Amino acid sequence: MKKYQEYKQVAYPSIGEDILAFWKSNGIFEKSVANRQGAPTYTFYEGPPSANGTPGIHHVMARAIKDVFCRYKTQKGFQVKRKGGWDTHGLPVELQVEKELGITKEDIGSKISVEAYNQKCRETVMRFKDEWDDLTEKIGYWVDLNDPYITFDANYVESLWYLLKKLYEKDLLYKGYTIQPYSPAAGTGLSSHELNQPGCYRDVKDTSITAQFKVQGEKDLYILAWTTTPWTLPSNSALAIGEKLDYIYVRTFNPYTFEPETVILAKERLSAYFHPEGAKRELDDYKPGDKIIPYQILEQVKGKALLGLQYEQLFPIPELSLPDPAFTVIAGDYVTTEDGTGIVHLAKAFGADDFRTLTQQHIPGVFVKDERGQEIPIVDKKGKFLPFVGKYLKTKMEAHGIQAHKILSENDFYVKNYTLEDEENKAYKSTDVIISIILKNENKAFKVEKYEHSYPHCWRTDMPILYYPLESWFIKTTAYKEQLVAHNRTINWKPESTGTGRFGNWLENLVDWNLSRSRYWGTPLPIWRNKAGTQTRCIGSIAELQAEIDRAIEAGFMTASPFKGKTPDLHRPYVDEIVLVGDNGDQLFREPDLIDVWFDSGAMPYAQWHYPFENEELFNANYPADFIAEGVDQTRGWFFTLHTLAVMLFDSVAFKNVIANGLVLDKNGNKMSKRLGNAVDPFQTLKEFGPDALRWYMLSNANPWDNLKFNKEGVAEVQRRFFGTLQNTYNFFALYANLDDFVYRKESKIPVQDRPELDRWILSKLQSLIQETGKAYEAYDVTPATRGIMNFTVDQLSNWYVRLARKRFWRGELNADKQAAYETLYECLETLCKLMAPVAPFYADWLFKNLTASQTGAAQSVHLTDWQDADENLIQKPLESSMQLAQEISSLVHSLRKKEKLKVRQPLQKILIPVLQPETQAYIQHVEEPIKSEVNVKSIEYIDDTSGILVKSIKPNFAVLGKRFGPKMKLVNQAIQKWGKEEIAAIEKAGQLKILVDEAEEIISLEEVLIQSQDIPGWSVASDNGITVALDVTLTTELKEEGIARDFVNRIQNLRKDLGMEVQDKIRIQAAASEQVVTDALTHFSDYIKTETQAMALELANEIIHPTVLDMDEFTLSVAVEKV
RNA sequence: GGGCCUGUAGCUCAGGUGGUUAGAGCGCUACACUGAUAAUGUAGAGGUCCGUGGUUCGAGUCCACGCAGGCCCA
Asked: Which residue is nearest to nucleotide B38 (CA to C1')?
């Protein structure tokens, strides 16, 4: 039986399947973990995917990255447990269910019960689990699929509740406001998803107003600010300018009241408010009612100069007065001069930017207290001004004689037309219009006009939405900002910029984490409150809840526990039915919100182990993670929530190393989408190429954090170039090893120092490769690791070592030289298996098994072996440099041969290499043999300076001289370029030479210039990279004969092949007599020819019975070959 | 609008701390090799290093402003 299986053709996809089956039936993954029991742990956290959609090609990418480092660390001796997980809650699940049932959120509770709805979600969420598991296995992502954490699991949710309670106890969980899209008509907040429905944004004509804000303490100085929502003006509490923008003070008249005044606006917006003609008119000539209003620019300032300016409240309603620093000019980074006045009016209650800016700058907003003492905005949830504001407006209407389409009561001031008034009615006046007229009359409006813009509408009611403060539960992340930033600095981010930039900046501009979601399928907020909001209870475990339920039953608020006799389900609607008892005896109802699903996944380090209720030791041993990896889009998702919870609750990072990988785009750089049909099916790709080439391509083509333009051609190229070459190399080894019955035995191998130089060279390269690869894996740089392995395999091992050592494998008996060759090649291949195993786990294992099949005591799988550390004793950098010179010289000779049209089979006498440094000669002498055999020359001669025939060139060493001379470098260069033969000789002799630079004498030393030999007169010369080679092209008779002999051998070998002979078959050759030179060649090189062709006899005959005519290029020759 | 990433040959990508001929693989063209052969080698063509300014004796590399594509956030 053959010791090393040979393969005619390799089907990579079936290697994947076969090895997968082998892993499964032998429990290799489990063994790779169990083997390391007691070893130090290396912790990896799986970011849970959602199984309610099918996996895509980008998941292959993400999972391959995770797998690589877990496998590598296992090889390095760590125990790496990898618990899988599933993300199961959230909006996408709900939307999918709604789509399938043909319902909307409004139907929940009427057409379908919450219970049934959530049941449906639970069923849907794992729908594609099998497909995911299948992909996971097929791409070789080793993760424990048998015991995954599932975020809807009661144990998981219980851990979440525990964490929430911890936050609550630390006073980090609070209820507050956030500005959200809100539909007064539907009485509900809208998610950004709902707002992105087609048709939501609609062009509408609204009344826009440029209001005049009177600067305090000035007679008639006003700041102009523009808004398309005049109804927000009573809530104004600040104005924002752009610090770097230019603003002007303009002396003019109010177009409605004709009063003289000075207004402030952005310089760029002047033309939008003033007729050019106005600049030419005299202010004094103005008469009230003139169409063209004169103006004069008084002053220009930077926005910064306006900061802190105080102004009078636009609507001085007593209930709305605010303490300082309200009604102040502040800076806003979002202010532009694209429209409006370049000054933005801020109403804290009705804009997200406004709310954020004012909160950050500690400026109060316009709110009033409701009966419970809670702050509320002055527009209620129906979209209507509170009565006292209505009353104020009504009074003003009467004062100014404003007539509307009907008599408006104080309860009729809706900010948008939510009562469906007839807008066609000529007398119809919206609240915006009424406000505008009031302001016009009071000299508080500079310009009022209809303005068409895009405004979002509620997709259910078609009515305009408002940005409105809604109550939400928050985690006070801002309280931990410093710690979050500090801990982040200790994390190794790949790439670094994601950590310092995207993530770091996000932390710097942190806002509190809005935890609330008004939905159905998710983790319920474990908070119960009384109606007045004065009593709050946060529940941190099932046991605690049970106890509280018991108390509630005792108090008569509940009749029975909903969990009686069954496993508690902590989802809605069950938790909603629970009414608890407050300390004061009040009924406590659960706050109806669910929590952000990102909390679910961010809490996985704890909840996956049901910590702290179980597995405390396991948790401690695996916290924090050494490594996580996920898409860069998770920066503010999973990465953030993991980090935040760890820092806030455990004063720790959650992960030490993280790779944030980029996107997988189609080959044209477009986003993949199923809808556009450019999505690549991972299963199809696996079928075509198998898992290894796919993984290798994805990780070697570009760094994982760069976007990958996925191209199947690229996978094919990797397969051909890398795997194909490696496979060829193995086949070459197997073919001859089997013929010689060679089996690698570690015990009896030839010591490396006794092996030929070529062997020591490739083994030195191999050790260097091990170092380089290990270093790259340690630094989480998988791409350089793969590139190094590829380069070694293709360029060094296959294209140099095997090519040069080829003859050693197929000639003669199994002597020491041959054995050394086998052992060397074997060692390279086996080591490659280990180095590539993390990236190409199937092929590496397959090759490993082929190599070790006949060895006793070999590991069952490469994944159960230890990483092989480099043997530094074997590294011989000088030898590596020598061989590199050999490769470069060979390349030069090849190019010379081509130029001279001399094929490699024609031996040539010698090459000449000019050497200016003795070391260079020594380096080359080491590798004369490989050079000579590679380029087929008899000898290498070196010419040094003493010959006097070298033509040299000189140029300054810019790096050295540039530092010395700086600005005078140009002159130095010119001076050195002028040097000829004598000067070069002089500096070489004396080690230095004087030049004149700018009339000053300077000494240039030999180290500061670069001298190269570029030509040998009368020779065919090539040079590159500082090496020059000359080729002796004279053909002596003997060389010619040898050339013919080699040609002859070549033709006979072809013939043998054509005749279907085996490599070891012996033959007899008859050749017809021919020209003298041919006959001489065959006679003189008879032994050589016989050895090469395995001929027992080579006879020259005058006539041959059944001749084969060989085409020898310049002549033909009749021969007969027969097997003996 | 903000933050971050990317932009080098037809394609995919390398190009520490600035240094004078900008590289590799694929593809293309030509040639060679023919006992690794559905393999391999060599050579050639192919470049506005996204643009514009600036710093410097010297910029693919540093700075500023842009442009294009992408991600996240408003």
From this structure: A9
